[in-house]
Design a protein that fits this description.
Order of helices and strands: HEEHH
Largest sheet: 2 strands, antiparallel
Oligomer: single chain
Number of helices: 3
Helix content: 55-70%
């Protein structure tokens, strides 16, 4: 009996919008959309596979950005000045050779 509640959500989340779109593979009942036949179930499985694929891509891109920000690649052009306390404490009167 308790398995009915998760099945209700896993089937109704993709099933109700598909049924309201006019697909004949679903019947809207009291507790959501009920798939009629194999094509209805196939559309539900395909929906959740697309959701899983999109989540995988999003997490993969997020991890790549996080690793890139932790280990930035050297940029072409002028080198960046180091930010250390000695460099920041120098004023305009200090010769360039000391920097």
């Amino acid at each position: 009996m308790l398995a009915f509640i998760p099945a209700l959500f896993w089937v109704s989340i993709p099933g109700v919008p598909l049924a309201l779109a006019g697909l004949p593979f679903y019947e809207i009942k009291e507790f959501g959309a009920i798939p009629n036949g194999g094509i209805g179930w196939l559309l539900i499985v395909a929906f959740w596979l697309v959701v899983a694929f999109c989540l995988t891509l999003a997490l993969k891109r997020r991890r790549a950005r996080k690793q890139e920000s932790a280990n930035p690649t050297p940029r072409r052009g002028l080198p960046r000045l180091p930010l250390n306390p000695l460099f920041l404490s120098l004023d305009a009167n200090t010769p360039i050779a000391c920097r």
